[in-house]
Specification:
By secondary structure, the protein is α+β, with helices and mostly antiparallel strands. The protein has one domain: Roll (Nuclear Transport Factor 2, Chain: A), CATH 3.10.450. The chain contains two helices and six strands. Strand 5 and strand 6 form a beta hairpin. The longest helix has 15 residues.
């Protein structure tokens, strides 16, 4: 499987399974391939409506600043199925 296919599988899975959470700003953050396990580790970042900060400017404009959430998706290299999702506190973890 090519890296683009693994990323696409992770994004599609996130949008399907977490779609009712109104994900926004979904984007690729990290890619890693585990050669021993034949698994892609795809980290995606996204925002959700309840994960937002307010500051003085956002209070005036009415727009909240969305915080990013990060999840690592495990994508099977052989068949492209997503076999798991793990929470990541930041992209530095």
């Amino acid at each position: 499987m090519e890296v683009k296919e693994a990323v696409r599988a992770a994004k599609n899975w996130a949008l399907d399974v977490m779609g009712d959470e109104t994900l926004a700003n979904l984007g690729l953050e990290e890619v890693e391939f585990d050669d021993n396990a034949k698994v892609w580790k795809i980290t995606l970042g996204f925002s959700r409506p309840w994960n937002s900060n307010r500051n003085a400017l956002s209070t005036l404009t009415g727009e909240a600043l969305p915080k990013r959430a990060y999840r690592t998706f495990l994508v099977n290299d052989v068949d492209g199925t997503v076999t798991g999702m793990k929470r990541k506190l930041s992209v530095d973890d």
